[in-house]
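Recall that a protein's primary structure is simply its ordered list of amino acids. Everything else, from secondary elements to tertiary packing, is in principle encoded there. The following example makes that idea concrete.
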Amino acid sequence: MTSTRRIAVVVLCVLLADLPILSEPAPADERAGQIDALIPAATRNDAVAKAKDDVDWNDLLKTAKSGRVRASLLDGSILSVGSNSQLRVVQHDAASQQTSLEVNYGKLRSQVEKITKEGGKFEVKTPNAVIGAIGTDFYVAYLGNKTTVICYKGRVSVTPLGNVQILRNSGQTNSANHSITVNEGQMVVVSNVLPPPSDTPPGLEQSTLLATDIPANPPVEVRAGQVGGAHSWILAGVAVALGAAVTAVGIRGGHSIPPPTNAQPKCPIGVAKC
């Protein structure tokens, strides 16, 4: 081999060494499923996602404002990623039924196949909670430092992480491990940031003052039901007082006031009218 050829081979080897390694399909034991359908814009590992793309362990699925992704896992479970969301498929071993997902932000619906393997698990982790399912249909969202879990069917467990506050809970709390069991139709909202304090709504302060205020000279108000009662007693008292006064005047003057009578005067015999 001439020196020119040797130099050319060395240069070619150096250039090839600097080229990025072409991506290869993941080993069969690290394949998690595939993308069934999507609404652009959506990406898989920051590349444009397409239907029928494989989904492997540690793949990152992201959607924009108008994007959505539906992926099926090898065990038959279905993942539906909403818009403005990010989901990492950390692990999915269909044989041992070991599934671990991470929702960094956004919305995810999981329709999970029933777990029958001993030690099997299906977990969705957010920055402040871990949601575990046995075989169910549920929704998880992490938005504004809040994790919201809604159980559509079956049952899930929610375990808050760190020093978080439970903002809403219609499930049952397990005091032993601080987890929350959420059954069908129930929901839980946890957050590590409390809602900011807010002022009294406009007009509410004034309306509460008016509702409890008594003016210095309150108007006299007689209810309809009280007219017959109070006024009748007053009128009766006035009548009694006037009667007593008239009687006293008659006695002082030496005259008696004959009682009224309706008797007609008697006429002589034979006279029809007097």
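The chain has three helices and 18 strands. The first helix runs from residue 3 to 18.
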